[in-house]
């Protein structure tokens, strides 16, 4: 097998197996940083050995065995090799050539628990939001620091420092490698869901740069969400988040034109919406809403997205229901951004004047100062009311605030259209 093909195979295996590998090692060593070092050592060994020996029948088990051997070597060198670890070493040294051992077979039952533990560790509230995102993509997504940096348009050294500091913070805080106790689990789960949705949103509507979307980040967030539904199937908000992401991702192909220019939701060709994603999203929403537990914010947002997904045309959208859902969301999670979205729904349900009244009430909110969507929404409502000069000024103001090049172009085009 040529080296280039082997490298592609190694990369593919790493993307699939890295989270399980690091999670399993973290359970053994109780140190996320050391676990990643051991996993990276195994990856280097694969790059060195697989071109000649070929990809093993069970590559994940092969990587785990090599990583455990590295661990045994380290413990020997450090002279902390007690009887339990000696037994581990003997079993690893007698492993079959395909990399499977009795330990690996016995560990299969732990894989799901290990990955779930790693999710809770990587998204621990002791870390900053930026650190949680970077560590999650690194540990659970198998992305390199370069890939994470390109995804979020930040320098690679910045991402590397975030990851190093995150590992150090986890070690200093003595964060245990475990799923939180039931009393703490809800708050920690909220952090996990927040990180996954932040990753998705950055891919869905890039905050900076010249690309309108970064599909690879959307795909990674969806993958993490789907994994989490398998790990925590009884949590309705997990299904709610996946439903929201599936439905939003269904529009990806219709959100940009041939030149990459953004296409607004109401102008999109709904025939290009991915019906498989919509079906998955609606099924996940059914599971979330079918729970006997109170409805959460992600489930509410998924229900809002479903109003779009179920409508064959913009005119068929149930805007009244959407406005009511936004009102419920605003009560549950008060936020000026939610109120701004509610203003859009009110404008569609009851006329642009109704939406404009709410937007005008938000103009003095300090949380929205510098937020480009506030003048963008206001410009849209003013345009519908025929107040074109005011609308033009709002679109130009919004264009000056956004950091995304594609969105800036769209806003300037709308401003020019208002000028006649």
From TrEMBL:
Q: Which UniProt keywords apply?
A: Coiled coil, DNA-binding, Sigma factor, Transcription, Transcription regulation
Task: Name the chain's protein.
Answer: RNA polymerase sigma factor
Organism encoding this protein: Plantactinospora solaniradicis
- Residues in DUF6596 domain copies: 188-288
Parts forming coiled coils:
71-98
Family per record? Belongs to the sigma-70 factor family. ECF subfamily.
Q: Where is the RNA polymerase sigma factor 70 region 4 type domain?
A: 119-170
The UniProt entry, under PANTHER family, shows: BLL0085 PROTEIN (PTHR47756:SF1), BLL6612 PROTEIN-RELATED (PTHR47756)
Q: Where is the RNA polymerase sigma-70 region domain?
A: 21-80
User: InterPro entries in the record, alphabetically?
Assistant: DUF6596 (IPR046531), RNA_pol_sigma-70_dom (IPR014284), RNA_pol_sigma70_ECF_CS (IPR000838), RNA_pol_sigma70_r2 (IPR007627), RNA_pol_sigma70_r4_t2 (IPR013249), RNA_pol_sigma_r2 (IPR013325), RNA_pol_sigma_r3/r4-like (IPR013324), WH-like_DNA-bd_sf (IPR036388)
């Amino acid at each position: 097998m040529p080296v280039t093909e082997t490298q592609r195979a190694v990369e593919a295996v790493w993307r699939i197996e890295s989270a399980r590998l690091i999670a399993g090692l973290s359970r053994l060593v109780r140190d996320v940083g050391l676990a990643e070092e051991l996993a990276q050592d195994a990856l280097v060994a694969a790059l060195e050995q697989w071109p000649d020996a070929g990809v093993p029948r069970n590559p994940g088990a092969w990587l785990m065995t090599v990583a455990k051997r590295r661990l045994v070597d380290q413990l020997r060198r450090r002279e902390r090799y007690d009887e339990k670890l000696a037994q581990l070493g003997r079993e690893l040294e007698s492993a079959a050539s395909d990399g499977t051992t009795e330990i690996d077979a016995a560990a299969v039952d732990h894989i799901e628990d290990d990955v779930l533990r790693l999710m809770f560790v990587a998204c621990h509230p002791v870390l900053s939001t930026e650190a949680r995102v970077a560590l999650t993509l690194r540990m659970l997504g198998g992305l390199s620091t370069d890939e994470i940096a390109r995804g979020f348009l930040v320098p690679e050294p910045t991402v590397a420092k975030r990851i190093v500091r995150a590992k150090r913070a986890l070690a200093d805080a003595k964060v245990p490698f475990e799923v939180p106790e039931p009393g703490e689990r809800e708050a920690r789960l909220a952090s996990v869901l927040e990180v996954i949705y932040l990753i998705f949103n950055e891919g869905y509507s890039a905050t900076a740069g010249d690309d309108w979307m970064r599909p690879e980040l959307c795909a990674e967030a969806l993958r993490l969400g789907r994994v989490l539904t398998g790990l925590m199937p009884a949590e309705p908000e997990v299904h709610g988040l996946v439903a929201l992401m599936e439905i939003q991702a269904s529009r990806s192909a219709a959100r940009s034109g041939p030149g990459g220019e953004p296409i607004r939701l109401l102008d999109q060709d709904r025939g290009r919406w991915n019906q498989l994603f919509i079906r998955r999203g609606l099924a996940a929403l059914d599971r979330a809403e079918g729970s006997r537990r109170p409805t959460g914010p992600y489930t509410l947002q998924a229900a809002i997205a479903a109003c779009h997904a179920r409508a064959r045309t913009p005119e068929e959208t149930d805007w009244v229901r959407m406005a009511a859902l936004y009102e419920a969301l605003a009560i549950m999670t008060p936020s000026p951004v939610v109120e701004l979205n509610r203003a859009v729904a009110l404008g569609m349900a009851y006329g642009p004047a109704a939406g404009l009244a709410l937007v005008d009430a938000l103009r003095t909110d300090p949380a929205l100062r510098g937020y480009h969507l506030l003048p963008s929404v206001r410009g849209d409502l003013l345009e519908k009311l025929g107040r074109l000069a005011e609308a033009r000024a709002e679109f130009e103001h919004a264009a000056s605030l956004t950091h995304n090049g594609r969105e800036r172009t769209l806003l300037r085009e709308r401003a020019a259209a208002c000028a006649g």
